[in-house]
Amino acid sequence: MHSWDDKQPLYRQLANRLAGGLLDGDPPEGEAMPSVRVLAAQYLLNPITVGRALQALNDEGLLDNRRGVGLYVRPGAREQLRRSARERFLRDEWPQLRQRLRRLGIAADELDWEE
């Protein structure tokens, strides 16, 4: 079961989850995205919500709409996602995380980067 929150519209939350999958290579670049029906059943969402999520990813330049065939992951989508996620992390999350580490007295050599 998938949990959703009230902080963002459902379509945006789904778009973020799907983008996370794309970042992990699922589906790989050049391959088709699952259909609206498949995603609606998988996430227990209205097909209109799923369609909006896919449209958002398409609008962000991550997908190619091949008329009559479906949506495919664009070449370079993974790197585009990685770049934007890195920028967001370094701008929004890292400063807060660094401050918390300092407060807790956790030094860089105490962190295990391999897990």
Protein model, in words:
- By secondary structure, this protein is mostly helical.
- The protein has one domain: Arc Repressor Mutant, subunit A, CATH 1.10.10.
- Helices cover 55% and strands 7% of the residues.
- The chain has four helices and two strands.
- The protein has helices spanning 10-23, 36-43, 47-59, 77-104; strands spanning 63-66, 70-73.
- A two-stranded antiparallel sheet has the order 1-2.
- Helix 1 crosses helix 4 and helix 2 (36-43) crosses helix 3 (47-59).
CATH superfamily: Winged helix-like DNA-binding domain superfamily/Winged helix DNA-binding domain
Q: Helix/strand/pairing class, anyone?
A: mainly alpha
Domain tally: 1
> Strand share of the residues?
5-15%
Instruction: Return residue spans where pLDDT drops below 50 for at least 5 consecutive residues.
Output: none
Q: How confident is the prediction overall: mean pLDDT?
A: 94
Essential attributes:
mainly alpha; two-stranded antiparallel ribbon; 7% strand; elongated; Arc Repressor Mutant, subunit A
List the helices and strands and how they pair.
Elements: H1 10-23, H2 36-43, H3 47-59, E1 63-66, E2 70-73, H4 77-104
Antiparallel strand pairs: 1-2
Helix pairs in contact: 1-3, 1-4, 2-3
Provide a short characterization of the protein structure.
With 115 residues, this protein is mostly helical. It has helices at 10-23, 36-43, 47-59, 77-104; strands at 63-66, 70-73.
